Amino acid sequence: MKKLGNDHRTQVTKMLIRRAFTELLKQKPMQSISIKELCEKAGINRGTFYGHYTDIYDLLEQLEDEMLADFEKSLEPLLTAKDRNLNPVEISTEIFQCIKDNSDLCTVTLGEFGDKKFAFKLLNIGREKCLQSYARYFKNTSPKKIECFYYFVSAGCIGLLQKWISDGMTTSANEIAQMAEGIMLHGIGFLAEKAGGAEDTGETK
Question: What is the Cα–Cα distance from 177 to 164, expressed in whole angstroms?
Answer without folding.
Answer: 11
